[in-house]
Amino acid sequence: xxxxxxxxxxxxxxxxxxxxxxxxxxxxxxxxxxxxxxxxxxxxxxxxxxxxxxxxxxxxxxxxxxxxxxxxxxxxxxxxxxxxxxxxxxxxxxxxxxxxxxxxxxxxxxxxxxxxxxxxxxxxxxxxxxxxxxxxxxxxxxxxxxxxxxxxxxxxxxxxxxxxxxxxxxxxxxxxxxxxxxxxxxxxxxxxxx
Length: 194
Prior knowledge:
Mean pLDDT: 95
Order of helices and strands: HHHHHHHHH
Largest sheet: none
Strand content: under 5%
């Protein structure tokens, strides 16, 4: 990840909020610069343009969400907790609190066409790591599962998380909670039988 000056850090902190709320097309470098207390030409001292700023902010969002994944799955498992349950149950709360997650998901679902390869590669790596962490937790929970069963549960888990992400982006917290309750009940019952 590119190292930034304090001014560039400030610009990124403002830009992630704008990009998360408005997306790429509706975000304005003039507005970002003004919120950072500078004029647009000063922003160009730190970033070559909108694409450069967007990519730096996206890389930082991915980094923040990777760190969150690692921390969430590293927490001590409580009695009766199923693999991946904590991450799924906290997803709505994380979405509300983290501009990085809101930006990452919005960008993954609506990537600017010229940056699509970079966006897709970053998001696919994030999903792959989520799948790896879930599979590691599943192995600890049910060590007798063979690789094919682990892959099946891993794919189902990623499908659940993807469905929950869609609810957060399109429908909001209420729909998210209903979808989580339904999917986790069925998935959790299946896991509990292992």
